[in-house]
Design brief:
The chain is mainly alpha-helical and 175 residues long. The protein has one domain (11-133): Arc Repressor Mutant, subunit A (Orthogonal Bundle). 54% of the residues lie in helices and 6% in strands. It is built from eight helices and three strands; from the N terminus they run H-H-E-H-H-E-E-H-H-H-H. A three-stranded antiparallel beta sheet has the order 1-3-2, with helices on both faces. Strand 2 (76-79) and strand 3 (84-87) form a beta hairpin. Helix 2 crosses helix 4 and helix 6 (99-110) runs antiparallel to helix 7.
C-alpha cells in the first residue's frame, strides 16, 4: 500500500470529453482509481479486485463493467492476471519532481509484475523524466547566464566618466 497521504487530481479531468462522456458510476470508478490507497508515484499499481469492490460497495460484475468502460475510452489500462491498474497519461499530470522522486518512481516501476503495463509505464516515465531533466538543465543555464550577466566590472558599476575612475588608485597607481 502507498505511503502517500494525498493524490493530485488535475482539474482538467472535468473538461475531458472522455471523462465527461462517462456514466456517473464510471466517473466515480475513475476518481477512485486515481485516489485510492494503493496508488503510487508510478501511476501503475496492484489493486486486488476484492479491495476495490469493498471500497466502492460494488459487485464484482459492476467493477468489471466500469473497468471495461474506462479502458475503452483510454483512461486506464488493466492486466487482470495480476489485478494491475495503469492510469493513462499519469506522468503528464504527475511528472517526477526531482532526481530523488525519479529514482523512487523508477524503483516502483521495476517492481510491477505485469510486463505489458510495466513497459508501457516505463516508456511514459522516461519521456516525462527526460523533459524534466532538460527543463532543469535549461533553468540552470539561464541562472548561470544571469549570474554571469550580473558580474560587472568596477568601471561598469561606477561609470567610466566618473571622477572616481580618474583617481590614481583606480588607474592602478597605488596610494
Amino acid at each position: 500500500m502507498s505511503a502517500r497521504t494525498f493524490t493530485k487530481v488535475a482539474p482538467a479531468v472535468w473538461r475531458s470529453r472522455r471523462f465527461i462522456g462517462l456514466p456517473d458510476e464510471a466517473k466515480v470508478g475513475f476518481l477512485y482509481l486515481l485516489s485510492n490507497a494503493h496508488v503510487t508515484s508510478a501511476g501503475v499499481y496492484e489493486l486486488p479486485r476484492g479491495y476495490a469492490c469493498a471500497d466502492l460497495g460494488w459487485t464484482d460484475a459492476a467493477y468489471a463493467s466500469v473497468l471495461r468502460e474506462l479502458i475503452e475510452v483510454g483512461l486506464i489500462d488493466h492486466d487482470p492476471d495480476g489485478d494491475v491498474i495503469l492510469i493513462e497519461r499519469w506522468f503528464r499530470h504527475n511528472p517526477p519532481a526531482n532526481d530523488d522522486h525519479a529514482t523512487g518512481t523508477r524503483r516502483r516501476l521495476q517492481a510491477i509484475e505485469s510486463d505489458k503495463l510495466r513497459e508501457k509505464a516505463v516508456a511514459a516515465f522516461d519521456e516525462a523524466n527526460e523533459i524534466r531533466i532538460q527543463r532543469e538543465a535549461r533553468k540552470a543555464a539561464e541562472k548561470a547566464a544571469k549570474v554571469a550577466g550580473n558580474s560587472k566590472s568596477v568601471a561598469q558599476l561606477v561609470g567610466n566618466t566618473s571622477r572616481l575612475m580618474e583617481t590614481r588608485l583606480m588607474r592602478g597607481g597605488g596610494q
